[in-house]
Amino acid sequence: xxxxxxxxxxxxxxxxxxxxxxxxxxxxxxxxxxxxxxxxxxxxxxxxxxxxxxxxxxxxxxxxxxxxxxxxxxxxxxxxxxxxxxxxxxxxxxxxxxxxxxxxxxxxxxxxxxxxxxxxxxxxxxxxxxxxxxxxxxxxxxxxxxxxxxxxxxxxxxxxxxxxxxxxxxxxxxxxxxxxxxxxxxxxxxxxxxxxxxxxxxxxxxxxxxxxxxx
Amino acid sequence: xxxxxxxxxxxxxxxxxxxxxxxxxxxxxxxxxxxxxxxxxxxxxxxxxxxxxxxxxxxxxxxxxxxxxxxxxxxxxxxxxxxxxxxxxxxxxxxxxxxxxxxxxxxxxxxxxxxxxxxxxxxxxxxxxxxxxxxxxxxxxxxxxxxxxxxxxxxxxxxxxxxxxxxxxxxxxxxxxxxxxxxxxxxxxxxxxxxxxxxxxxxxxxxxxxxxxxxxxxxxxxxxxxxxxxxxxxxxxxxx
Lengths: 215, 240
Description:
The complex is a heterodimer of chains A (215) and B (240). Chain A is of the alpha+beta class and 215 residues long. Chain A is built from three helices and eight strands. Chain A starts with 8 loop residues before the first helix and ends with a strand. The mean pLDDT of chain A is 93. Chain B is built from seven helices and eight strands. Chain B folds into two domains: 8-127, no CATH class; 147-240, no CATH class. In chain B, a hairpin with a 5-residue loop joins strand 3 and strand 4 (59-62). The interface between A and B is small, with 10 and 13 residues.
C-alpha cells in the first residue's frame, strides 16, 4: 500500500510560486507581443471637430491617427494630399522611413505598396501626378505631431510622400512644406516599426487606410 | 548630486537629438543650434565636437570656446543681417556653421560654402583684420554657385589686360594676400589674382564693407559695375 505523503508548507509555497511564475511569464509574453496594448484608439465618430472638412483619419496598426489639415498655410500641398487621400492611394502603403521617437515617413505610391514593395527603390517613387512647388514661406511651428510633405534635396520636388514628426523640430520651418498636425492618436505612430541601425525599415508597417472625414 | 547628474544627462540627450536632426538636414555631424530666431531666418549652428566631411574626409573643423563663439557670432550676425530672407532664399543660403581651424585638404581656409546644402561654414578664428570682409566673400561664392550664368568668367576675364591669366585654382598659387591695395591695377588684393571666381568675391566683399572707391582704376570700375548689374538681376532691391 502506497503511503500518501502530505506536502509540507514550504513545498506548497514553492508550488504556488511556480504556478504564479508560469502564469506571469505566459501573460507577459502575450502582453509584450501586443505592441498596441497601451495605445488609445480614437473613435473619430465620437469627436466633434471645428473644421470637419479638413480632418483626415489615418488608420495604422495601433489605431486611428487624426490629422487636421491646414489649407490656408499650404493650399497646393493640402490639395495634393487630399486628392491622393480621396483616391485611396495611400491604402496599404509602407511607413518606409522611421526614426525612433523622431519621425515616420510614408507615401511612396510606386515602390512602397504592400505586396509590391521594392526595397532597392523605396523612397524614390512617384505618384504620377508630378511634383508640386514647396510652400515654405508661411511661419509654421514644427512641433511634435506636425505633418509635412517630404521632398528630395531640392525644393519644389514634393509629390506624395509625407512625414509626421514625433518630437519638436524647429529647423524644419522654411525647410519643409507643412500640411497639418496630428490632433489625436500620435501614440499610435510611436509604435510604428523601426530599426535601430537604419532609417529605412525592412518588412515595415503599413497604412491600413487614410480617409477624409467628409468626402 | 543626483539631480545634477540627471540635468547633465538630460542635456546630453537633448543636444544629441538636435545633432541628429541637423545631420539629416545638412549632412554635417556634431553640430548644435546656436541661434535660429533671426530676422532673416538664417540658422546659426556651432560645432559641439570636431567634424570631418567632404570627399575623402578632406574638410575638417573644430569646436570653439563659448566666449569665442559669442564674440564672433555678433560680428557675423551683424554682417549677415544685411541680406534679407528673400535674397537668402534666392541664393540658397540658410545654415551658418561656426567652428574653428577650418581646413580643406589641410589648407586653412576662412570659409567653405555649399549652395546645395544651403550651408556656409565659417572659421571663427580666421584673421581678425579681414574677418568681416571674408564673411561677404564667402557669401559671394554661394551667390555665384547659385547663379553661374550671371557671373560668366569669360566676360569677367576680358576686363583684365590681355597678358593677364588667372591660375588654375585658388590654391594653385602663392597669391594669397588679403591686404587691400592702396593703388589698384584691376584687382583689390593679391588673392584677387588667383581665379576669376575669387576675384569676383573680392570685389563683392569690398563693396559690401564699403571700401573707399575714390581712386580705383578703369578695369576695377568695370568689374564693380558687372557685379552690381548682376546682383540687381537676382534681386532688384539688393543694396550694396
